[in-house]
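Hi P.,

Sorry for the delay on this. The queue was packed all week, but I finally got your sequence through. Input first:
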Amino acid sequence: MRRRRVLVVDHSVILRRAIAAGLACAPGILVAGAASNGRIALMKIPLLLPDVVVLGLEMPETGGLETLSAIRAAYPTLPVIVLSPPDARAGVIEALARGAVASLDKPTLPSGRVDRLCDELGARILQHCPEEPCFTPRKAQPHDDVPLPAETDRTDARVDVLAIAVSTGGPSALMDLIPRFPKDFPVPIVIVQHMPATFTTLLAERLALKSRIRVAEGRAGQTLAAGCALIAPGDFHMAVARDGHSIRLRLHQEPPENSCRPAADVLFRSVASVYGSHVLAVVMTGMGRDGFVGCERIREAGGQIIVQDEQSSVVWGMPSFVVSAGLADQILSLTALGPEIIRKVGNHRRRAAAPAFIPALGPTHAVEKRPR
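Then the structure:
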């Protein structure tokens, strides 16, 4: 097994040494180096070639959020796990929005349980770092907002549900996309965003405050409704199922898929089964390949698939798998996604609502009915 190389970045020398000692016995992990602040970390990354960065949010000089943004810009596929005080929820949400793959609570030293932190770190490092190296500098290759060739023309089909898959960089992307939808958005929206439990609740609350549609964390048995976006709760898979004339949410904790729970593949398979060709799936910024198998099912059912382009994605992992397999109907920038989604969900409905043309027959006259 290849050992994953880890760079530990935090201002506390005690914590850095404790993490290094705790991970030393973890199978498949090697602490390649440490840095006391973000500036030093950014200089060490091209020298050490780490597979993952463990980054403290609170640091002097170049802080954690600033460092995270710099890492994500230069090395889009390099996983970053942030360490934060237990009460720094706003900072964690911002870190996840900027592209952190996970967040763990930083223990209070010297009495804190560093051993427990190291156990969690070891599991997250193996989860988010695959066998192949994660160190890949960004390539400046922008994509145009163009449709891709498809075997059949599905781009004019009726859309009855919008299903979104998003991961690294997702909170920020959703904050850009969801508030663009009008209050009378005509179909339900279901979203899988890879985030830990409790943070999906905070994300839903933030989106609800900024959006004209309703946004909430999904609940088991909840009925899907037009103009309402439901986000899969952290640590639960979310699927849809038909119940008579209604479509309801189903939540469960079956094993993770693609090392994720919630997993987009679970949601996508279910919408393909329930809605058939009337699915519009959107795969946005994210690391890994979650959503790819689900997109295959949606394509087989005749649904439509749009992906976010590389230039506007924090990490072009999930979308790239869909594009490489020829499953995407369109590759669009983040700013182009909203208008195109609105056009697609309203296209068929506008035509159906348009009055039929009736040729003029000339003036009409009232006829008085007389009793016989």
